[in-house]
Amino acid sequence: MQFTHRESSFVLISNVTEGVTDHELLEIYKGQQVVENSFRQLKSPQLASVIFLENPTRIKAMTMLLSVALLVRAIVQYRLREGLRKHKEENPDSEIRAGWGGRPLANPTFKLFYEHSARCHYVREGFREYSFAWPNCETHAVVLPLLKLLGLNIATLIQ
Fold it and tell me: Mind listing the pLDDT tens digit for each residue in 108-121?
């Protein structure tokens, strides 16, 4: 009863009647939204309009590539969130200011990481020698902590 008053009310109709509490059923329902958001890109009409493949084998191959891309996206987001969870456990008084607009990081997403790191690039210095180029100081301040949460650093990326 306190949960309903404290959070809000949800009306769910389900054929699941045994083995799941109301709270667990709500968590399962909310978890579906995460999957729907991830696959929204696959289902978007813009994607279908730019891909015109007549060969069924090519269609299957493209679907597989898109599925792998979604898997990579999910892994990156999972590692960001796990890294943040571990950081909070080890440094409870320290916050990472890598959210949108320099806000404290709460629930990092792949989109946050991608949009901030999209303009970063490597510069070839010589034979097998590269450096990492930051477009500006703000990008450096956001992407570096996110890379750390992923368990990566610039030297690892260059190798």
Answer: 988 889 888 888 88
